[in-house]
Amino acid sequence: MTDSNSGWIKSTCAYCGVGCGIEARPTSLGKLEVRGDKEHPSNYGKLCTKGVALGDTVTPLGRLTQPMHIQNQLHIQNQQQQALGWNEATQLVSDRFNQTIEEFGPDSVAFYVSGQLLTEDYYVANKLMKGFIGSGNIDSNSRLCMASSVVGHKRAFGSDTVPICYEDLEDTDLVVITGSNLAWCHPVLFQRLRAAKQSNPNLTVVVIDPRYTDTCEIADQHLAIESGSDVALFNGLLSYLANNDALDEEYISKHTQGFEQAIESAKKYVYHSDSNINFEQGVSQLTGLTEQEVERFYRAFASNKKVITIYSQGVNQSSQGCDKVNAIINCHLATGKIGKVGMGPFSVTGQPNAMGGREVGGLANTLAAHFEFGDADSHQTVSDFWQTDNLATKPGLKAVDLFDGMLDGKIKAVWIMATNPVVSLPDSAKVKAALEQCPFVVVSDCIADTETTRLADVVLPAQGWSEKSGTVTNSERRISRQRRILPSPGEANPDWWMIKEVAQKMGHQHAFDYRHEGQIFEEYCQMTSLDNANGKLRDLCLIGLTNLDDKGYSELKPQQWPVLKLQQDIVNQRMFTNGEFFTASGKAQFVAVEHSQPLTTTSPDYPLIMNSGRVRDQWHTMSRTGLASSLGEHTPEPFLAIHPETAKKFGFATSTNQTNQVVKVKSAQGESQARLVLTQEMRKEQVFMPIHWNGTTAKNSKPCDLILPNTDSNSGQPEFKHTPVMIEPCDYRSEAVLISDSVVDCDEFDYWVRQKVEGGFLYRISSSKNPMELVIQLANTLDALPEPNAEAIKSLHYHGNKSFKNYGSAKLGQSGVKQAFVVNSKLDHQSIDWLVECLTREADEEFEAEFLSTMAK
Ligand code: SF4
């Protein structure tokens, strides 16, 4: 939707599940201006740092622009890359998929897709795999972020339905945030909650998290719970509610089933030491909290009428993720705190379109559009709708199993769309080996060089955010348009288009005869309107969107499902308001759950528990946010956060000057390295490492190299939050800071991390060589760089003293500083800032004098 006067185009942010509305317009200088959309009901004009910097990430730098066939992909030296036209590329993919299916059957092929895809892309991919190839082997990286919530919802409600809307945060009494650093991971939602608290001082916020995070800034109570003990805490709460006359008996009897079994389990979790039953299950012992802390939280939940429990990856990414979700939902059902204004369990999703993927059925264990496997009527309905006689009859392989399937030879062709599993799945070494083993790997992405594209046989250039067009759904079930704002570079095309090209070449011309994304959206909406007979609508019903014409789709305003009638104005609606659920009985189901330890725990070899998660200004594997210099400043380097006492216990100096060292982190799975950061915010037995850095932005700094492929047996979601590790010093002997106007291959160095800065890149390097050897290595590295414009290069050197205590060198071209480095520098932040500024300065005599005098300081 374009404002014809000003050129602003409405769209949605590329990142998290808050799904903020933005407005963007290209400028005459070839940039993209971005601002919050004041009319969008999810953010009313607000954006976080990532959203504000969206315009800085729109660059042709590093884009994949041409389909390529890469032969001999495992032998870099002998690799042959052949550029292909789209017709050839999609023919090659369809031929190889067809040959594989013919020889080994439909379950020998797979798609691994992403919450970055738009709903239209997802729908077409799901339709091809489940409807026409006839296999359930399509899974998504959303498996890594909310699969446990999907299972928890389905077990309790009979459907994957988020009950509440954002507006509820503004009319509630108590918000419990568990397993979520909302302030960093869903910042605009956090700002909304902060504003609600400011205008209503009676609003209480409780944060449950082993770490003290920025989210705790607005907390009235922080419960630094022991990793993996959420079921014990919420079972104890259910027990407390029953013992303190805080149940809603009428709601339980009218609208739920299974309470007796659930309370039978829960009452084993004793929250008070006066109690004389089974003290083995004492909540205090299991959670590491004091009885007073626990009871204060329980009292707050019981005494406040309106309660929202927000939860995210800290709950989901666990080998007991589904049980944690149901332990939370049980407490809401038992008190009737659901389906009304200002109350309910609230799973916030990580990715921009994780919800859209769930809706169309883009997970291996769901069929399509909230129709499920294992139901003959649903199978018939979907078969008839798609006019296929080859619909998959059983769930496919979930993410971790799917890559295991490649490793053991079951999966022989895979198409990976818009995701980088070598970096994001646990046990990266195994994922890499699986892709090396798989005979045919297709990767469609907008970025050319990722750890996954490096293993592809065919790469297909996809459109990126601001180029593609379609819809996404956010955490409050609100569907919004992403609109095309800029042209795509090179040959990049929409994901749905390349899937339909392959599908048609595989022989399914008619079923994939799409000309534009609006047509796909309409078909999807029609599918959601099936089987809504007998006066009972299914939860995901978009019947009100089935008659959109091109203009209607183009101008579509945000719609919150269910959509029975096109929403012209902002709608905020809750689910389960009438106490009816989508189970066979129409009643919500309590699920009896028990606390159990995570699948692996500490040992003398691995005595610490590593938690992993996001930092404020980066997103996933940094392929987009890593392009914005403003976003690199907040956390420039991968780090390992540790309590000072723990650091001391493991032999690390704890005075600020000496702790800033790179350390080795080891698990039973692998090794990684990061800079040690001391903080009181950690529990003493835990460390924390961010997930973003990988082989293209740092050396050996991936937590996924360490994380074991343990999963929840119900959801298949990996346990990212609980990895036993050991830390050791790296004992590097020298350090350097390098700036460059172009990317430098630093893989020869023992440790490096790259940060995008204005005018180029900043590298922090550590080495086991002595300073003099490092100087020589750096000089050789820079000498080997190509000089594309055959510029006259002038070199400056500063040699502090004979022991190379401070060695500086710069290469100056006509256009300015090309590279500069300082070895063993004592450069503080200000001096590093000065060095970075060199990249945007003229390399004149004044600069030369300043460089040498700064080195001499
Ligand atoms: Fe984008 Fe999420 Fe930030 Fe909103 S809160 S601007 S959706 S990253």
UniProtKB/TrEMBL annotation:
<keyword id="KW-0560">Oxidoreductase</keyword>
<dbReference type="GO" id="GO:0042128">
    <property type="term" value="P:nitrate assimilation"/>
</dbReference>
<dbReference type="InterPro" id="IPR041957">
    <property type="entry name" value="CT_Nitrate-R-NapA-like"/>
</dbReference>
<dbReference type="InterPro" id="IPR006656">
    <property type="entry name" value="Mopterin_OxRdtase"/>
</dbReference>
<feature type="domain" description="4Fe-4S Mo/W bis-MGD-type">
    <location>
        <begin position="6"/>
        <end position="62"/>
    </location>
</feature>
<keyword id="KW-0479">Metal-binding</keyword>
<dbReference type="GO" id="GO:0016491">
    <property type="term" value="F:oxidoreductase activity"/>
</dbReference>
<keyword id="KW-0411">Iron-sulfur</keyword>
<comment type="similarity">
    <text>Belongs to the prokaryotic molybdopterin-containing oxidoreductase family. NasA/NapA/NarB subfamily.</text>
</comment>
<dbReference type="InterPro" id="IPR006657">
    <property type="entry name" value="MoPterin_dinucl-bd_dom"/>
</dbReference>
<dbReference type="InterPro" id="IPR050123">
    <property type="entry name" value="Prok_molybdopt-oxidoreductase"/>
</dbReference>
<protein>
    <submittedName>
        <fullName>Nitrate reductase</fullName>
    </submittedName>
</protein>
<dbReference type="InterPro" id="IPR006963">
    <property type="entry name" value="Mopterin_OxRdtase_4Fe-4S_dom"/>
</dbReference>
<keyword id="KW-0408">Iron</keyword>
<dbReference type="Pfam" id="PF00384">
    <property type="entry name" value="Molybdopterin"/>
</dbReference>
<keyword id="KW-0500">Molybdenum</keyword>
<dbReference type="GO" id="GO:0045333">
    <property type="term" value="P:cellular respiration"/>
</dbReference>
<dbReference type="Pfam" id="PF01568">
    <property type="entry name" value="Molydop_binding"/>
</dbReference>
<dbReference type="GO" id="GO:0051539">
    <property type="term" value="F:4 iron, 4 sulfur cluster binding"/>
</dbReference>
<dbReference type="GO" id="GO:0046872">
    <property type="term" value="F:metal ion binding"/>
</dbReference>
<dbReference type="Pfam" id="PF04879">
    <property type="entry name" value="Molybdop_Fe4S4"/>
</dbReference>
<dbReference type="GO" id="GO:0043546">
    <property type="term" value="F:molybdopterin cofactor binding"/>
</dbReference>
<keyword id="KW-0534">Nitrate assimilation</keyword>
<dbReference type="GO" id="GO:1990204">
    <property type="term" value="C:oxidoreductase complex"/>
</dbReference>
<keyword id="KW-0004">4Fe-4S</keyword>
<dbReference type="InterPro" id="IPR009010">
    <property type="entry name" value="Asp_de-COase-like_dom_sf"/>
</dbReference>
<dbReference type="GO" id="GO:0016020">
    <property type="term" value="C:membrane"/>
</dbReference>
